[in-house]
């Protein structure tokens, strides 16, 4: 039996990507290159998620209901977002373009990024490579922005974000 070392932030990113690519054969090297996470980290992440009951190790399918519950009730406590200085970057949380009209916050939030064209109060992404990965994956960007709302938003916004994630998880992405 393997020792469970607890979830890590990259596990959330990886599980979201597995949901997005659930209709494809999923290889560790592909996940590694798409997420800019080393193959060994991907492998360790898959093991942690399987031990936590969030992933079926045989077919690498995500237990979506359990994962959604973890995001709703665990994410803000296990991986809370902390506000940093105003910086140049890429919009996240309420500020992400597809979410902006659905949420109440006027505050602009960004992941720090030298190539970013936006300005706002910074928060650290779940994992440093997220900014690179979402440039190539619009759906992953939206899912991670929703996760950031759960990490930092008020109760009403958190509930809306969970509802949107549930809708996305239940649909065929």
Alpha carbon gap, first and last residue: 34 Å
Helix segment tally: 8
| Principal-axis shape | globular
Number of strands: 5
SS-based class = alpha+beta
How would you spell out the order of helices and strands? HHHEEHHEEEHHH
Extract low-pLDDT stretches: none
- How much helical structure, as a percent, in the residues? 40-55%
Using only C-alpha atoms, the radius of gyration works out to 15 Å
**Proportion of beta-strand residues:** 5-15%
Question: Can you put this structure into words, describing what you see?
Answer:
- The protein is an alpha+beta fold and 173 residues long.
- The chain has 8 helices and 5 strands.
- The longest helix has 16 residues, at 155-170.
- Helix 2 (28-35) packs across helix 3 (39-51) and helix 7 runs antiparallel to helix 8 (155-170).
- The strands form 2 sheets. Strands 3, 4 and 5 form a 3-stranded mixed beta sheet that branches.
- The chain has helices at 9-20, 28-35, 39-51, 64-73, 75-78, 130-135, 138-152, 155-170; strands at 55-56, 61-62, 83-91, 109-112, 118-123.
